[in-house]
């Protein structure tokens, strides 16, 4: 509980950024059609899509269809925002039936913002709320391509356990890849300190 209140204060805390000392804030909120221009910045970036199952979006229409058909009906999809402007996304996919105890975390951030601690902060915000929002959830998992070192580091920093490598688990960009499985259980004791952001 103490950890959760830490997170809530992290979400609302203003953070000094960069040389110009602007006040910057990382928060999560729903993404909608009016965010299409911001969405296209990361969704059309090849660097962002490299380790993801999707290919870079090539038109605004494709982006609008994704927001309409996938994002809006999605059970848990949020924009990662810097000063309320979307710079990436984070989602939890819900499983049902005998798999209803678990959810799968996914995220992506515009490449301009990499290396500043933002994705770690966003994952911590999800961890701080998802088990309360979905009381049936016992396990949050994340599947990362072995070459995606940055994403593995994000999960480690957010308190996830690296469980092992699933060999030849998924076909990605025409090649079958090994995947690292990470998880966080609702019962795990995570010491969540607020990530230092270097904005
Ligand atoms: C993965 C991703 C979300 C990371 O976002 P980010 O905001 O840069 O992450 P953070 O800054 O919070 O942390 C990244 C960590 O990885 C480290 N890192 C990044 N690339 C690395 C590399 N090639 N080798 C070693 N460490 C690396 C960084 O140094 C940092 O660790 P540190 O704080 O200990 O120095 C972002 O790069 C991204 O959106 N990539 C494309 C989409 C994607 O891969 N999504 C995940 C699919 S599973």
Automatic annotation (TrEMBL):
<feature type="domain" description="N-acetyltransferase">
    <location>
        <begin position="26"/>
        <end position="178"/>
    </location>
</feature>
<dbReference type="GO" id="GO:0016747">
    <property type="term" value="F:acyltransferase activity, transferring groups other than amino-acyl groups"/>
</dbReference>
<dbReference type="Pfam" id="PF13302">
    <property type="entry name" value="Acetyltransf_3"/>
</dbReference>
<dbReference type="InterPro" id="IPR016181">
    <property type="entry name" value="Acyl_CoA_acyltransferase"/>
</dbReference>
<protein>
    <recommendedName>
        <fullName>N-acetyltransferase domain-containing protein</fullName>
    </recommendedName>
</protein>
<dbReference type="InterPro" id="IPR000182">
    <property type="entry name" value="GNAT_dom"/>
</dbReference>
């Amino acid at each position: 509980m103490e950890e959760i209140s830490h997170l809530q204060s992290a979400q609302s805390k203003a953070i000094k950024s960069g040389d110009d000392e602007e006040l910057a804030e990382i928060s999560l909120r729903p993404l909608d059609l009016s965010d299409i221009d911001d969405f296209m910045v990361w969704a059309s970036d090849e660097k962002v899509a490299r380790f993801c199952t999707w290919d870079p979006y090539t038109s605004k229409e494709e982006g609008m269809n994704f927001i309409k058909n996938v994002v809006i009906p999605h059970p848990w999809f949020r924009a990662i925002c810097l000063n309320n402007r979307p710079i990436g996304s984070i989602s939890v996919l819900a499983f049902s039936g005998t798999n209803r105890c678990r959810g799968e975390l996914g995220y992506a951030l515009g490449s301009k913002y990499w290396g500043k601690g933002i994705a770690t902060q966003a994952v911590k915000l999800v961890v701080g709320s998802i088990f309360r929002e979905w009381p049936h959830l016992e396990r949050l998992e994340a599947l990362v391509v072995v070459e995606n070192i940055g994403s593995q580091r994000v999960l480690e920093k957010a308190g996830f356990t690296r469980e092992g490598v699933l060999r030849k688990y998924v076909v990605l960009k025409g090649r079958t890849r090994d995947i690292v499985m990470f998880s966080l259980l609702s019962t795990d004791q995570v010491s969540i300190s607020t990530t230092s952001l270097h904005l």
